[in-house]
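Tokens as discussed.
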């Protein structure tokens, strides 16, 4: 494309019209002309043409048909249709099939064509700039995601070693004995490990497509409770009631991610002064969906924060060491599965999460 002038391609089956068009606009634009659709496509193959103007009524093909034929190969070029007769069907076809930018009548008005070309070229450049910005943004996001995922995995290796040493110390001196520092280190390491795992879960959730496999909720919940038993300190009373007689197909990874985050929150945000710390897990698997309700009798959430708890890094309380990303991941995972979540909470009484996940059978 010329650095100084806009390249314009004009297609018309009448040579006199081509001569007239080139004479009228050659001083303002770099004009290319074609008598047939084949010639026009050859020019498009050889030169970047931002503006393509075509007559509508031609013997071999209509202007709309020509535009329709080049949309996939040259999606960015601005298409302007000229016609010497009024035909509402041609207008509709031009918009729907040819993705025409402007529709002008013949005999043409030179000023009107100049305005259409200049405005069309501005739109053409804006589309190119937007696409390039989107490409760079996508590239940056991909690189950032890969970095975060890689860094998270790299951090887990030394963290696992520290946790192993702490476990050895616990075994040797009996729950750290009288050492005032080891329990602090242990809690901090566990918080960091949870945060890193949340980052990994978030990355896997946004990068991977939804999968469809068999889900046994009894097995999933049992495994989660066993894995979280160290976090609970075996002081939590789990009341589990699962009804699943039929098959449930869904995304097992995301379902487990949802349950782990909500159950771990139910454990973390218990009231230390409660006579009995309770977590109830009720799951009813129906032919079309799984209905899940997870309740606790913990500290609860203040009403003003209930609508914000699914925002990234939002923490409704400073009374415990949450990362502020877990419930965001829950909402993202449910959106991927077409699920829904609702929360009801009262301060000092507890919180209930109600979840529905479609059965993909």
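Sequence:
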């Amino acid at each position: 494309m010329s650095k100084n002038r806009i390249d314009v391609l004009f297609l018309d089956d009448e040579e006199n019209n081509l001569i007239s068009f080139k004479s009228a606009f050659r001083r303002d634009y770099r004009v290319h002309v074609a008598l047939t659709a084949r010639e026009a496509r050859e020019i498009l193959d050889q030169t970047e043409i931002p503006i393509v103007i075509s007559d509508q009524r031609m013997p071999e093909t209509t202007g709309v048909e020509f535009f329709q034929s080049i949309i996939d190969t040259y999606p960015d070029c601005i298409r302007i249709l000229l016609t010497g007769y009024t035909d509402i069907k041609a207008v509709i076809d031009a918009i729907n099939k040819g993705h025409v930018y402007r529709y002008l009548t013949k005999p043409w008005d030179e000023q009107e064509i100049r305005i259409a070309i200049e405005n069309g070229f501005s739109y053409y450049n804006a589309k190119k700039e937007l696409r390039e910005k989107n490409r760079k943004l996508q590239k940056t996001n991909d690189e950032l995601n890969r970095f975060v995922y890689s860094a998270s995995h790299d951090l887990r290796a030394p963290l696992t070693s520290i946790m192993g040493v702490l476990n050895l110390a616990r075994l040797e001196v009996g729950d750290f004995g009288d050492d005032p520092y080891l329990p602090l280190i242990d809690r901090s390491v566990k918080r960091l490990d949870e945060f890193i795992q949340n980052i990994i879960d978030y990355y896997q959730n946004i990068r991977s497509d939804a999968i469809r496999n068999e889900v046994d909720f009894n097995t999933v919940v049992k495994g989660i409770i066993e894995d979280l038993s160290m976090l609970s300190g075996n002081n939590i009373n789990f009341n589990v009631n699962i009804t699943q007689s039929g098959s449930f197909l869904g995304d097992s990874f995301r379902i487990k991610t949802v349950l782990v985050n909500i159950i771990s929150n139910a454990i973390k945000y218990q009231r230390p002064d409660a006579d009995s710390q309770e977590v109830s897990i009720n799951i009813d698997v129906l032919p079309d969906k799984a209905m899940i309700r997870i309740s606790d009798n913990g500290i609860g959430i203040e009403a003003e924060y209930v609508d914000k708890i699914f925002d990234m890094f939002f923490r409704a309380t400073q009374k415990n060491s949450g990362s502020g990303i877990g419930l965001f991941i829950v909402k993202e995972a449910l959106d991927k599965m077409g699920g829904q979540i609702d929360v009801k909470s009262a301060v000092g009484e507890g919180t209930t999460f109600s979840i529905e996940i479609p059965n993909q059978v």
